[in-house]
Amino acid sequence: MKKSLVCVAILASSVFTTTALAEEHWGYEGKTGPAHWGGLNPDFSSCGIGKEQSPIDIRRRDVKKQEPLPAIGFDYAASPAEIVNNGHTVQVNFQSGGTVQLASGNYKLLQFHFHSPSEEKIEGKNFPLVVHFVHKAEDGKLAVVAVLFKQGKNNPALAKVLDVMPTQKDEKTALGTDFNPADLLPANRAYYSFIGSLTTPPCSEGVQWQVMKSPVELSSKQIKMFQKLYPHNARPVQPLHGREIKEG
């Protein structure tokens, strides 16, 4: 009887572990990589069958010729913030980082995080790093502004994050209140816009995407600082499936 109970306990433990893995664990390589996300959890199904998935390769031939969209109204502000290493990337969470005004409405900045290399491509080319600024409207809809980074001179604003970012999963640290997310934006605010998804599970769709056309510089040392933690945390580009790409 005792032996049977032990077997049952082991089996139950195994089932729990497998379930937990399917529900919570995903990554960028192997059996939990992007090609398998859709099958890891029913809630992740959009990752496999969605038709408005991100990221995409932005090509001029797919950009709709029309009146340009209005300029993005950036109204970011310095705010208390926390840097978190969540096991997939480094993320900066804001208490009150400001808002953006888009053609689709007004959105509050929640956080920004990093991917290397850039998930988005421009004419088939990606960049060493991208920062995704994630925003939420009052009705719950999401909007992301993507800022691409190319290798060049040291970026003082980015250094405020990279120099103190946590190196261990689930580790957190406070970011100085003098940090303004607007300092990471390019001087040229032209952008591409399309409807897409979150680029990580559950890959929820209906996200309003804005990809800034002009990259910002950061140094080779700064690129290596992030890649030392996450050498590759980018989802491959997804099919466009007839979506329109607009520009502003």
Report on the structure:
This protein has five helices and 14 strands. The protein has 248 residues and is α+β, with helices and mostly antiparallel strands. The chain has a single domain (37-247), classed as Alpha carbonic anhydrase (Carbonic Anhydrase II), CATH 3.10.200.10.
Report, as a whole number of angstroms, the end-to-end distance.
72 Å
The CATH first-level class comes to: Alpha Beta
By CATH's scheme, which homologous superfamily applies?
Alpha carbonic anhydrase
- Strand content bin: 25-35%
The counted number of beta strands is 14
Number of domains: 1
Count of discrete alpha- or pi-helical segments spanning 4 or more residues: 5
Structural class: alpha+beta
Low-confidence blocks of residues: 1-23
Q: What value does the Rg take, in angstroms?
A: 20 Å
Helicity, as a percent range: 10-25%
Offer a concise description of the structure.
The chain is an alpha+beta fold and 248 residues long. It has one domain (37-247): Roll (Carbonic Anhydrase II). 19% of the residues lie in helices and 31% in strands.
Provide keyphrases for this structure.
single chain; 248 residues; alpha+beta; Carbonic Anhydrase II; twelve-stranded mixed β-sheet; two-stranded parallel ribbon; 14 strands; 31% strand; globular; disordered N terminus
